[in-house]
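Worked example

This section walks through a single chain of length 399. The input is the sequence exactly as stored; nothing has been trimmed or padded.
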Amino acid sequence: TCNWHNWKFDLDSGETLVGGDLLRRYPVRIAGDDVLLDATDPPPAERAAAALAGLRRACERHETDRMAREVGRLAQIGADPLDAVRETLRWTHDRFEFGATHAHAAAPDWLARGALAGGLSYAEIEPDLARAALAHYQDFGHSAIYVLKTGELIARLGQGVAEPLLLALVRSLVYARREDLIPEFRAYGPALARWDGSGDRPPNAADFRRLSVTKALDRALASSADIPGLYAALLEATAWQMLNFDLDRQDRTAQPVSQNVSWLDFTHGLTFANAVRELCTHTPALWPAGLLQMACFLGRNAGFVDAGQDVSAWAVDDAPAFLAAAEARLFDHGQPEYIVSAHLVKVAAAARSELAAAPNAPWAPTLLAAVRRFLESPLKRRHALRTARQALDFTALEG
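Given that input, the structure is written out below as tokens.
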């Protein structure tokens, strides 16, 4: 028994009975009165296989400390630590019931922060996947984000992970919810059908800040002739809403389900906008769908902002220093919930991407302040009292 961890081992076989890591075992033979022990290291391939087997077991048991040790063992023998990510993608791709998740979307951003090189693109199939993702207002923007990030992850990790990643992505596209079929967003389909690119009203971010979904769609159509200007206006309005989110909204416990909102509703607007710019730049025919869906985000979130609050404290004076410090903190943020850690890195990555694409944009200060406020504000995820009240209200209707 290890007195530090209370792990227990069988001294006859060396098998681990209770605990995590496997013991290193050495071949032994008896030669007369001598006990001969072979301390030669096993071949690197054998040690790598053992580390990956340990990693798989650690993943099944959510033992993050052991995951780190097994990756360290790969690095120690000169193997590629990214093999741990590649193998995990292969093990798990068919175990996600609905396909791609935030784990896949955040992975390329984590790897990018480590300055790892990539090079493989799936540009030939991206237009079809993006078209499927934007065919409807789908899954609150997740589908478009997953398409973009799947391509980036394949580029980082290589063709060997393309099949499991694409299988997971396609499954998520098949199962994705059509938000345009619920009452709040039913105006999206007719608005897309009306898009003809003739709207010549100059885009203005301030116009979109407080509009309903239907009015935001109409306002976007009015500026459809200026796609770059309309994108910039929608992005600026998205950043403004994020900066002015009414934090009281995420703490309320007595409200209908339609009023449930949190920081993640607002951060999705930014990460979705980033996906729209990237995907639609590659496939320009998709701009109308992407821009109108950005308008849907704005209309959805318009009722949950407080324009009267003082947000001056969130101003960022040195953008490069702020982003560098924010990204450094992401590697030790202490958040126990995977979806939160994914959102932290995705938001920082999306902000950096948008600022790199338009470094002198007038909306840059608003975007930076919004990201700072998100990273430094409380994020309530458990809503036990609200859930209980809404459950009682729902079941009361059944009686």
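What to look for: The CA atoms of residues 51 and 73 lie 6 Å apart.
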